[in-house]
Amino acid sequence: MEAVVSVLVALSSICLLNRDITTYAAPAEIGDSQWKLIERSGWCARPPKDRATFAGAAPFIIIHHSYKPGMALSESDCQLAMQQIQDFHMDERHWSDIGYSFAICGDGNVYEGRGANVVAAHAPHYNNRSIGLLLIGDFTEALPPSSMLEVALDFIQFSVDCGFLREDYILYGHRQVRNGTICPGDALYAAIQKWPHWQEDVEDIAYL
């Protein structure tokens, strides 16, 4: 698949005073699917308390669902969902930022969380060697809309093409690498087992 990336000329919303207004947002077209990469400024992210990075393409991608907040369909509701998740992670869990690397929302767009090559907080032992990809909604009993699944698969290939993710990456559901969670929900977990590179057996964490 080929990515056609152009510069986004305007923010999609007016940011709150206490949120990050740095911008480098860009829309993207991947194959037959079209989506925008909404960067932190586009959803009015708060600045992180601290930030650590890791080098090279990540060998793992971990799939999550949010459970709460639930499905959001409009761009404004998706921006609000991202803000709510970030506020919960920073204010309640006392993390330095939103836990995930990127998120897919029901408006058909990809939202930047911590971003690529940034140490995240979505899966212990994998945070410095993975992309944590969140699908916003509760997918315990029902699948996300097909459009969300298509964007997720496109974004994974986009991440490979951009060098954020290794070509021989391994894909897991969150429950495979973290005890005590049913994330990414039973319905979504069943679906991702049919995705490229999903692996049932969990690799030794020394895999790089």
Automatic annotation (TrEMBL):
Residues 1-25 form the signal peptide. Keywords: Disulfide bond, Immunity, Innate immunity, Signal. One of its GO terms (molecular function) is zinc ion binding. It comes from the Eukaryota. GO terms for cellular component: extracellular region. One of its GO terms (biological process) is innate immune response. Residues 35-178 form the Peptidoglycan recognition protein family domain. InterPro entries: Amidase/PGRP_sf, Amidase_domain, Peptidoglycan_recognition, PGRP, PGRP_domain_met/bac. Residues 46-185 form the N-acetylmuramoyl-L-alanine amidase domain. It holds the Pfam family Amidase_2. Belongs to the N-acetylmuramoyl-L-alanine amidase 2 family. This is Peptidoglycan-recognition protein.
